[in-house]
């Protein structure tokens, strides 16, 4: 198991603000390894079937290509990802942030292609999930390219993790991305170097602008929660799109508008 050493100040910041930046979770050499695998997914050298979808369907201008490429469960197709450095180190950090019982619930890739200019709308991840008895969760968002305001770095609303989940609705086509009422005026953006990441909680409001630059914005996301809650989900048939990634819905009736 990887050893980490978050400071008390870092853990307090995560608890108070709902997010945390962690620099250099993977090395420059490791970044290149991950980018090679990631590009095999994007080029469809690795076939993912229904686990690949357009998160920006109905939000962007393109109907001929994906506005925001989302690939669920990449570790189902490249098993060695589970034992590579990112998964190991992110799990260790998540256990420091939310508890020693944390395990990986799911992983996914989200890419914003050059000049795709499609926002990921404001939302809280918890709106996508079952209404779990234990709501501890941490999502790790790794930048494989430099993440900037112009290519779609993350924005967070500090302290939104301590409030209720806002009413959500479909942002574009039904079955696509969810959104709620929020704005950049409430938030703060977090630019990242390649190989650095953010962790955020399930109730933390977040969004990103579209990619208006000439390079990809490749992000690799891992989600962690208590092992008992993962069992709770699976017993109820909820697997975060493992079997049908394109079928999104407002799972939690409490968050419908």
From TrEMBL:
SUPFAM superfamilies: Clavaminate synthase-like (SSF51197). InterPro entries: Phytyl_CoA_dOase-like (IPR008775). GO terms for molecular function: 2-oxoglutarate-dependent dioxygenase activity; iron ion binding. It holds the Pfam family PhyH. This is SnoK.
């Amino acid at each position: 198991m990887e050893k980490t050493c978050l400071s008390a100040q870092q853990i307090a910041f995560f608890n108070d603000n709902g997010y945390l930046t962690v620099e250099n979770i993977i090395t420059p050499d490791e970044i290149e390894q991950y980018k090679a695998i990631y590009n095999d997914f994007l080029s469809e050298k690795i076939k993912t079937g229904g686990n690949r979808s357009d998160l920006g369907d109905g939000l962007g201008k393109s109907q001929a290509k994906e506005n925001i490429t989302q690939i669920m469960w990449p570790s189902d197709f490249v098993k060695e990802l589970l034992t590579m450095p990112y998964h190991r180190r992110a799990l260790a950090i998540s256990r420091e942030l939310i508890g020693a019982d944390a395990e990986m619930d799911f992983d996914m890739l989200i890419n914003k292609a050059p000049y795709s200019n499609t926002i990921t709308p404001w939302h809280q991840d918890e709106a996508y999930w079952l209404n779990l008895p234990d709501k501890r969760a941490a999502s790790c968002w790794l930048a494989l390219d430099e993440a900037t305001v112009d290519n779609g770095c993350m924005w967070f609303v500090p302290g939104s993790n301590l409030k209720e989940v806002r009413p959500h609705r479909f942002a574009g086509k039904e079955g696509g991305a969810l959104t709620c009422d929020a704005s950049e005026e409430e938030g703060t953006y977090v630019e990242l170097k390649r190989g650095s990441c953010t962790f955020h909680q399930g109730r933390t409001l977040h969004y990103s602008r579209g990619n208006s630059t000439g390079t990809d914005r490749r992000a690799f996301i891992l989600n962690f929660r208590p092992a008992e809650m993962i069992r709770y989900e699976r017993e109820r048939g909820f697997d975060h799109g493992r079997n049908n990634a394109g079928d999104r819905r407002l799972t939690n009736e409490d968050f419908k508008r």
